[in-house]
Amino acid sequence: MKKIQLLCLITGLIATSCGDNWLDGISPQDAVETEKSLNTDTEAVYAMNGVYTVLRNYQYYGARFTYYADAKGEDMQARGNTKRVANYYLFSHNAVNSPAGFWYYPYYTIRNVNNIIEYTDRFTRDQMSPTLQDVRGQALTARAMAHFDLVKVYGMPYPKDKGASLGVPIVTKRLPNDAKPVRNTVAEVYNRIIDDLTEGSTYIAKHKRTGAGSEQLKLNWYANQLLLSRAYLYTEQNRKAFQVAENLIAEALKDGYRLFSTDEYPTAWSKDTGSEFLFTLINQTSEVSDSKEFIGYLMHRSGYDDISLSTDYMDLIKKDPKDIRLTIIEQFKPNRDYLQKYVAPDYKNANIPVLRLAEAYLIAAEAAVKENDNSNALKYLNEIVKRANPNKELKGVVTLDRVLLERRKELVGEGHRFYDAMRNNQTIERKGKSHNSALLTPETRKFDQHFEKIVLPIPSGEINANPNIKQNPGYGI
Questions:
Q1: Which CATH number does the domain housing residue 361 bear?
Q2: 336: three-class secondary structure by DSSP
Q3: H helices of 278-390, where?
Q4: 260 with 387: CB under 8 angstroms?
Q5: Among 54, 176, 375, 476, which residue has the fewest nearby CB atoms (within 10 Å)?
Q6: Count: domains in the chain
Q7: Integer Cα distance of 444 and 441 in angstroms
Q8: Domain with 164 in it
Q9: In the chain, which residues have pLDDT < 70?
């Protein structure tokens, strides 16, 4: 993909001149050119539909952003030194080869939703139809989600210095053509994320999305609240994280969401929808021309075979041979174990479950541990432990390490492990025999949050376009 400068992205210059392809395959009724001002509610709805296509791109949630945090951990690995996943796994990025898509697609999302939000700013709440209120809520949630993604990749974990280090530019409106924004601090970015999610929750539809097609893939209140509880957890606001997660679970159960049962779990991942999925990006074959770049194809041994489970993970999960999560792993050959979470409707055109109710239980458990609330830590963690094996039940004192261990087992392949370890100052140690690349160095085999390369460098094109953007330490000027 061409290098896209932030200046071009956030000022809404002519999209085609920047090499944008987010409207490829989308019919006029599904999207609006969002560099143009919106004039009707219908255009706002169509524009929001187009945002989901940006999120679904294989350089964003469709693949690369989703596998990033697993490729940088110990539980998954690149299948070779030249695979698409290899640079992430080996920490071999520099300012020149840093993946521009990790900067481009979140800011592209932000630009698009800012246009929607600016349109809805024209009206009071009473003047908005329920549909327009929902669109505003979706837009605010998507803007928070994109800023969240950016600060996780380019900013140090909040607990390292209470968010004092540099994060990313906060963009909440269309900027003039000569704008050169500076990087806000990590704390400022998280404050904006929390504000957007909090406001968005008052507008976004609460009902479970059960319709077909575009209706099914839209963000709702439950997705909003999961992101909010996660943001509180990442910023050490553990009491709030627990309260939001606990309320989310209670409300979700009333509305028909629930954890997959033990019996359902092995086949749940091969279905388009499920009781546990709060937000899924649906891939329609007719709309996707580059499906071989999506995560299902990359994770499958019959596809590009780019990324597999490591022996570290397999040694962990095999400690309980009756763990139901073993049923969604294809143990093909020694050191070739494949996760099968992205196989609906098939691995060639897989849907992307982005937000899942199980995470809310794990957030509640982690936050409870950090608040010395052992009763609730046991309550919520046991729901995940006993689902994996009904004959297992935790008793006694729950430790943070035990919660994070369960997060590793339950959320593998969903883009969490690396961030979980870094924000809790755990050490990632790639010690399994499958981590055998000669390009792994001592510092990429074992590291914690003090390793400078746990953040990506800002792409050099962005630095050249905007001298106010400071580069991350360790990557030159």
A1: 1.25.40.390
A2: strand
A3: 295-299, 311-317, 357-370, 374-388
A4: yes
A5: 176
A6: 1
A7: 5
A8: 6-14+22-280+299-344+357-465
A9: 1-35, 177, 210-216, 284-290, 477
